[in-house]
Amino acid sequence: MTGGAGLPLALTLGEPAGIGPDLALAIWQRRRTLDAPPFYLIGDVDFLAARARQLGLDIAIARATPAEASAVFATALPVAPLAVPVTAQPGAPDASSAAAAIGSIDAAVADVLAGRAAAVVTNPIAKSVLYRAGFTDPGHTEYLARLAERATGKAVMPVMMLWSPELAVVPVTIHVALKDAIEHLTTRLIVDTGRIVARDMAARFGIARPRLAVAGLNPHAGEDGTIGREDREIVAPAVAQLRADGIDARGPLPADTMFHAAARETYDVALCMYHDQALIPIKTLAFDHGVNVTLGLPFVRTSPDHGTAFDIAGSGRADPSSLLAALKLAARLSARTPAPASVA
Fold first, then answer.
1. At what angle do helices 236-244 and 187-203 cross, to 10 degrees?
2. What residues are paired with 270 via a beta bridge?
3. What is the dihedral of CA 230, 231, 232, 236, to 10 degrees?
4. How far, in Å, CA of 201 to CA of 214, rounded?
5. How far is CA 161 from CA 140, 296, 317, 328, in A?
């Protein structure tokens, strides 16, 4: 299984002191039994060889360009070298961490936009480490959007979706305090998010007319205005506009009855009003194999739905299920998605 006209996937290093390198090494070692799609890792060959030894893995690692990666993948882990050496030890980020993490992302995006890679798959980063190094974006998603805008000259609105076979959810407001999420929530934001979700679910997931279930903000979706007016004044008008656009949207729906098995059969993706309203149900149902998918970008980007796990990095105990799911979903989506116009 390969994506984008047989191109390999570009996998970023992530935070080198975290479990990202462990997962990439483990998946390549078990690539046949796991049916892993061809990928190349953007990192430091010497660093990865040392991490493999720490994990007790006998793995062939080869420097490779993206063009060579698919052929190399059968016999060695293809690594596209970074310009900076990586020296971080498991669980201990150091001065090389931020430069390696950011450089790997930059290279992956450049490769996919130039048509050298099918999609970007990102290993987890440690935002606190990046912030100390002067990183100014709130996170991965916003940084990817900025790179895309800079390369293409077109405005980008990234939308975070958490996907699993059991459930797909989109938080309309993301990494903000709950009180701020309520202040930021607008009819326009819900409509813009819903339009991107409907478009990309059709174009990338192949769902001809995606069904969007829109959660209410308040308990019982506001009880017709008796438990807060936001659902009547903000959410309901957004649903009406989406329906006027021809999108199959319904709501606002009481969030406490949206996620049981029978309810999930009635929609393809749930639009939720704040972070935990979306992430609690999917992490309950699919903690080990959920995938973070960024919609709205001019390329496919997926990521495992977990963090750096510094406490188990280098131990061999990290579960590769979510990264494997991210790789497989990236290959599936990129096979359906036209390659972006080259900006090389």
1. 40
2. 169, 213
3. 130
4. 15
5. 13, 10, 27, 16
Q: Give start and end residues of each alpha helix (H) in the chain.
A: 20-29, 31-34, 45-54, 66-72, 97-113, 127-132, 140-152, 178-184, 187-203, 230, 236-244, 261-264, 275-285, 321-336
**Contact partners, residue 291, CB within 8 Å, separation at least 6:** 162, 163, 164, 302, 303, 304, 305, 322, 325, 326, 329
Report the DSSP beta bridge partners of residue 78. 62
β-strand pairing of 269-272 with 159-163: unpaired
Cβ contact 215:222 at 8 Å? no
In the sheet with 39-43, reading across from the earlier edge strand, the strands are 61-63, 77-81, 39-43, 9-12, 120-121, 301-304, 291-295, 159-163, 168-171, 269-272, 211-215, 248-253
The tally of CA atoms less than 13 A away on the side-chain side of residue 125 is 28
- Lowest-confidence segment of 132-136, 156-160, 299-303 by average pLDDT: 132-136
Contacts 24+ apart (CB under 8 A), 62-67: 64/40, 65/116, 66/7, 66/8, 66/10, 66/40, 66/111, 66/116, 66/117, 67/116
Nearest to 302 by CA among 167, 215, 210, 204: 204
Q: What domains are there in the chain, each with its CATH number?
A: 9-157+300-336 (3.40.718.10), 166-282 (3.40.718.10)
CB 215 within 8 A of CB 170: no
**Cα end-to-end distance, the chain, whole Å:** 26
In tens, the pLDDT along 106-137 reads: 999 999 999 999 999 999 999 999 999 898 88
- From residue 211, how far is each of 18, 116, 207, 238, 273 by CA, in Å? 37, 34, 9, 15, 17
Strands 168-171 and 159-163: antiparallel
- What pLDDT was estimated at residue 281? 97
CA distance 218 to 299: 35
Token pair recorded at residue 316:
């061999």
Cross-strand bridge partners of residue 9 = 39
